[in-house]
Amino acid sequence: MDEPVVLRTPRLILSPPVEGDVDAIFAACQDPAIQHYTTVPSPYAREDAEGFVRIVAASWRDDSEYVWALRAGGQLVGMVGLHRIQGGAAELGYWTAPDGRGRGYITEAARAVIEFAFGPMRLERLEWHAVVGNVGSARVAQKLGFRLEGVRRAGLPGHGIGGAEGRVDGWIAGLLADDPRREVDWGL
Fold first, then answer.
1. Is-contact 97 69, C-beta < 8 A?
2. In the 3-class helix/strand/coil scheme, how is 95-146 assigned residue by residue?
């Protein structure tokens, strides 16, 4: 991309995080669930938020990852991104700040990102990964139409989950460009 892309939904503006978001990112990443289920450092320092904003800017420039801050009414309520973009595929990842949960923001934002990925980007496949047990993230992926492909044993770094120092089991699901975008029941 020559420039970062701003996406809009009926309730949200998705734009790359900027320096002015550092305090909100830092505050959101103090949430135990974000530290437990994502790859953010734990404990999470303000310097981590500052570094994250710099990394996101660089990743837009080199087309390796596209990350958007979700803004509802001017307030940062989460992040959604396309990670490891290569060979016609990418991984969809997201988190929601505690104050933004239960409102459907991530599902709404991720739909816009999926349409961008399969539309202008012309990707062929998106993957979703989550620690086994992250039911909230799984529910969003199901609503988006991802098909559960299995459990990757020791497939994700533990990064402190439940005291795990090594690797933990992870769910993997996929969505192809021509898959229907309707809810899928994984039987969880």
1. no
2. EECHHHCCCCHHHHHHHHHHHHHHCCCCCCEEEEEEECCCHHHHHHHHHHCC
- Report residue 37 CA to chain centroid gap: 11
Sheet holding 167-176, edge to edge: 7-8, 13-15, 66-72, 75-86, 89-96, 125-131, 167-176, 147-157
The architecture in CATH of the region 7-176 reads 3-Layer(aba) Sandwich (3.40)
Average the pLDDT over 156-166 and give the result.
Answer: 65
Nearest to 176 by CA among 184, 168, 165: 184
Residue 24, H or E segment:
helix 22-28
Residue of higher predicted confidence among 102 and 160: 102
Listed by start position, the domains of the chain span: 7-176
Cis peptide upstream of residue 43 (ω within 30 degrees of 0): yes
